[in-house]
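Exercise 7.
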Amino acid sequence: MSTVSTSDRKYHHGDLRRALIEEGLRLISEGPADQLSLRELARRVGVSATAVYRHFPDKGALMAALAAEGLARLAAAQHAAFDGAGGGVQGFAATGAAYVRFALGNPALFRLTFQHPAPADLMQGAQGSDEAMQFLLANARIYAPAPMDPQVFALQAWSVAHGLAMLMLDGQVPADDAIVDAVIGAHLAQKLG
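Solution. The predicted structure, written as tokens, is:
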């Protein structure tokens, strides 16, 4: 028989914030993000609600952290796709396809990611604080056809990928890899052909 009391079983973790984010990602993959509760998150991680509030003073702060993690994961997927395609124009096309595939593979995280942070204003030349936006702008400066403004090209490329992702997530267009490749490839061929 154990004599360990509940107070002796306190949760100790080298990075509680990271553990809370990872569990938050699991929770939003299981149900609507707006139904996520900080108390449930605390329970699932095995800490007190007070411990959660030390890292996230409210639900909005947690949602912003989850959205930031979504952007970081999206950027990583896009970098991997760019490198996997060998860079260049093919790599740029691969980043658009990776964007759509990320959305399809992570629908709740994708929706949350674009509902919470304020996106960079491409038309005002903002660099964007997230790596995905910076990567898009850097590629647009290289691949925008003359005399098109690279910011307009970036916004157009983002709009095509985001629009296709949303149409597929909402069931308006079949979630099919061949369609993803055809639409993203046709957009770039039209602009860069």
